[in-house]
Amino acid sequence: MDLYRTTLAGSLLLNGVVLYQSYRAKTVASSESVANPEKVEHRGRETGDEERVTRLKWRFLPVYLLVNGADWLQGPYIYPIYKDEKGLAESLVALLFMVGFLSGGVSASFAGAFADRFGRKAACLAYCVIYSLSCLTLLSDQIVLLFLGRILGGISATLLYSVFESWLVAEFNGLMLEEQGSALSGIFSTMTTLNGLVAIGAGILAESLVGMVGTAKAPFMASAVCLSIAFITISKTWPENYGARQGGSEESTGLLEQQANDEAPTKSALRLVLQDKNILTLAVASCFFEGSLFLFIFFKFPALKLCHELAGSSSDLPFGLIFAILMCSMMFGSQLYNNVTSSSAAPAKRILICTLALASMCFFFPAYVRKESITLWAFCIFEVCCGIYYPVMGSLKGKLIDDGARASVYGILRVPLNAFVVIALSTTKEGEHHRDLVFITCSGLLLVAALAVHRILA
């Protein structure tokens, strides 16, 4: 148990050090700007940019954290509510999960086009409604409604990971800042850091609610409340933005818009992904990394449990403590990324290559080493990679994908990811040998992704 407490303390200490360095860097930069008259005018323009970015953050982040908090609340209990509380067979639970991912894959082909055509704000509102309905289906024990809930959940996942980011980037690009790239990277880094904090808080809240109410339905009802608040906030505070096809409201720029006059949005977005080697490379990297992340979520506790038992320990694993450790590691990664990008001009491509290569090693070692500390620390480093991956990938997509069809392309990028997950679920078996094979496969795929980014991404 000391291993986990010590690791958590170390994670908190590292986060504190990085936070302090970030604060010091901002203080020094501010004092240098004031002391140098030549920088006063430039600093004035920067201050104006910072104020506009800050207003955008305050408009977006509370909603973003609410909708992600709604998702995190459900995470710890989505399996127990089916298996334990409703008493469904293991095979039926697996089928419910597979239906959810299939729904996500199918909806990814049109959800983004819907958002570009009818508005990203409208799609975000639709997410709040659809996910709330998914939560409410769990009040029933009827199997048809439970399957309907998983279908709605799959659609919601597609919307969550495409339309909110699309709305943000389109609004950000409308600010016309001097330092677009670094400011956008900073927003994505903040999103990842705060999302880690929300995940920890949501896990604690979900457990408390179940303890007080006595049913696993409680976190899902709390999730619906969060989504209702997000719906009201979006309705009252967010402006709408559209893709290029909406009444010609945006100027047509780039390959996709030239084709949009003759093609349906989804077909046009798919053609862009297939013809643009940079976006196709991001699709490969996204599929392999985020698919590996899903398998990591599925197999991390069994892998740690095996090492724990081989070490001769008969105590239960501290699952809550492990979750907190991993979330702290992810927060450290996002803060580290923010510090690196704000203090140097490190190319996003190089950061992504290093992140993918390091993540590959994090799957390789647990497949061959049965030492509890090494497995735990490898998983921590992988979460650090997650903290770096999301802001750097968000920044690259923000630069490479045109605003006119952003949500459509983001949706298309999730199709191979959902296919990856469905295939993985359909071939999952019990036992350490299968788990080792999964880890080795993920390690190889991440290395392939790193090489693809190195050789192809411009």
UniProtKB/TrEMBL annotation:
GO MF annotations, alphabetized: molybdate ion transmembrane transporter activity
Cellular localization per UniProt: Cell membrane
PANTHER family assigned to the protein according to its UniProt record, in alphabetical order: MOLYBDATE-ANION TRANSPORTER (PTHR23516:SF1), SAM (S-ADENOSYL METHIONINE) TRANSPORTER (PTHR23516)
Keyword Transmembrane: yes
Membrane topology reported for the UniProt record: Multi-pass membrane protein
Pfam families attached to this UniProt entry: MFS_5 (PF05631)
Name under which the protein is recorded: Molybdate-anion transporter
UniProt keyword annotation of Amino-acid biosynthesis present: no
Function summary: Mediates high-affinity intracellular uptake of the rare oligo-element molybdenum.
Organism of provenance: Trematosphaeria pertusa
Keywords, sorted A to Z: Cell membrane, Ion transport, Membrane, Transmembrane, Transmembrane helix, Transport
GO process terms (BP): monoatomic ion transport
Chain ranges passing through the membrane: 60-79, 91-115, 122-139, 145-170, 182-206, 218-235, 279-299, 319-338, 350-368, 374-392, 404-425, 437-457
Highest taxon of the lineage: Eukaryota
GO cellular component: plasma membrane
Major location (coarse): membrane
